[in-house]
Structure formats: C-alpha cells, structure tokens
Amino acid sequence: MPHAIRIHQHGGPEVLAWEEVEVGEPGPGQVRLRHTAVGLNFIDVYHRTGLYPIPLPFSPGSEGAGVVEAVGPGVTNLKPGDRVGYCTAGVGGYAEVRLAPADKLVPLPDWLDDQTAAAMLLQGMTARYLLRKTYPVRAGDTVLVHAAAGGVGLIACQWANALGATVIGTVGSAAKAELARAHGCHHVINYAQEDFAARTRELTGGRGVEVVYDGIGKDTFEKSLDCLKLRGFMVTFGNASGPVPPMPPALLGQKGGLFLTRPSLAHYTATRDELLETAADLFGVVRDGRVKINVHQTFALKDAAEAHRALEARKTTGSTVLLP
C-alpha cells in the first residue's frame, strides 16, 4: 500500500505521521495521481497548527507534480501517463498517491521537470496574481517585497524587476540579502539591523512605495503601512509571523488614504480558464529566463517533520521539495 503523511491532531511538526493509506479508484471528475515531487509551503504549517482549520484527520500539502495513473468517469482532458502539476486541488499532497480533481490539474510542458514544477506552481502563481492582478505592477513603480529570499519572494522580485519596477526587499540575514540581490532586488534591507520603514522612506526620497507585498503578517504589518506613498496599496497575503491584529479602518486614512487587501490564490484561479491563464503566464516567464526557479532544499517525504522545522526556523531559502 502507498504511504502518506497524516495529521490526527493539530500541533507541532511531531504530529506529522508517516502511515500506510488506501487509495481507491478515481470517482467522477477525479484522477489518481502518483506523485514524483511535492512542494513545501508555509500554508502547510497553518494547516498543521489549525490556524487554517481542516477537519481531522487529513494529509497536508497543497502542491505537487506527478503522473496520472487512472482517470474517473467524465474526465476527458487527461489520460493515464500524462504529467501534471497542481496547487489549487486542495490538501492531500503529502502522499505517494492521491485522488485529485481533474479540473484543478495543469498539464506540464515537456521542458519543465517535475521537481521544478512542484517547487514553483503555488509560489509562482501567487507571485503572478500579486504582481499582475492584485496590484498590477508597471514600469517605474517602486515595490517592497517582504521575505525577499523566501519562495514567493525570490520569484516576485525577479518578476517585478522584469516588469520595470524598482524592487526593495527585506530579509533577516546577510546571506539572504545576497540571495535577494541575485534575484532582482535593487535594494535589500536587513530588518535585523535596520528599521525597514525608515530605510524605505530614505530609499524613495521620503515618498514611499506604490505597493507592499507582505507574507509575514503580524511582525511587519503596521510598519509596512508607513512605507507606502499617498494612496498606496497594502497587500497582506500571509501570516508567517502570526495573524495581523485587528485594526481600525480609520488608520488607513490617517496614514494617507491607503488601500488594503487580503487576497488568496483561490480568488484569482476560481475558474478553469483563470487557472490555465495563470499557469501559462508563469510558464512563459520561466521558460524565457525572466524568472529562474531553483530548488534550494529537498527532503524525503517521510521526513516532512524535519522540513517543517527548518521552514519555521527560517533556515530555508527559496523553494523546498519533498520527494516520495
């Protein structure tokens, strides 16, 4: 029987259990998928801890790549042997084999290997909706990207640079600063050594940036508002440091008539056409070299707890892949 990581109670990495599981035949609209690579993302931690509650027990993991083994009734766009990837198919990725909805799977181009696909789909599609849809970045804009050496950050910084923006990134160490500079950041702020809001104002001549992309949450939110220009755009899309505390809407007015949004990938891939459009845009910038994807860490899937510990300790950079 195949194995999967299962969670029976919320908690720390120790609740990730490696177990045998039974995977049946695919039902209507489903395929059975054998994973070749699984992506590690911070949302997996939110699911494990219960910050984003999912009924127990379950297998975490929202991103993966693999080969279709069987298709269920009504599936006409895929066949056994097809290579596919996903990042909007729901949890269940930490498994050797899973059932998945066919309409949430994206065919992988021949030039793209499975590990790179599993490393880039969720983070790359997130960067795409942030930069192209939530606040469409234009040439001449100045943008601030928190966690610039993280998975989304490295992709977003490269992509924003390619769009003609001036990119300011924040990081927590000198090594991460060098990585961010090598991936499109024009200016890097080490928040362990500098006040990032004051430094951002200095870099922009006191004006502020058009947009802040913040996946960190509690630790960076309020100061991020101080980085924005008049009528600037605050995009909070993650909670790596914890959820943002309640905030009176009047604060946005006091700080310059700011705009605030809390989007998710699901909001921008709600239809099959939107999903395929988002994937095609991402594949395009990777294939032509505007965005480079590097798998910086790999772990055996059965060692997912070790991977979670490294991720939460901020010991990882860029993309991490779990291998079945």
Automatic annotation (TrEMBL):
Q: Which residues form the Enoyl reductase (ER) domain?
A: 11-322
For this UniProt record, the keywords arranged alphabetically read as follows:
NADP, Oxidoreductase
What GO molecular functions are on record for this protein?
Answer: mRNA 3'-UTR AU-rich region binding; NADPH binding; quinone reductase (NADPH) activity
Report if keyword Cell cycle is assigned.
no
What SMART domains does its record include? PKS_ER
Q: Which GO terms describe its cellular component?
A: cytosol
Query: Is the keyword Mitochondrion assigned to this protein?
Result: no
List the InterPro entries: ADH-like_C (IPR013149), ADH-like_N (IPR013154), ER (IPR020843), GroES-like_sf (IPR011032), NAD(P)-bd_dom_sf (IPR036291), QOR-like (IPR047618)
SUPFAM superfamilies documented for this protein: GroES-like, NAD(P)-binding Rossmann-fold domains
Question: Any idea what this protein is called?
Answer: Quinone oxidoreductase
Q: Which organism is it from?
A: Aerophototrophica crusticola
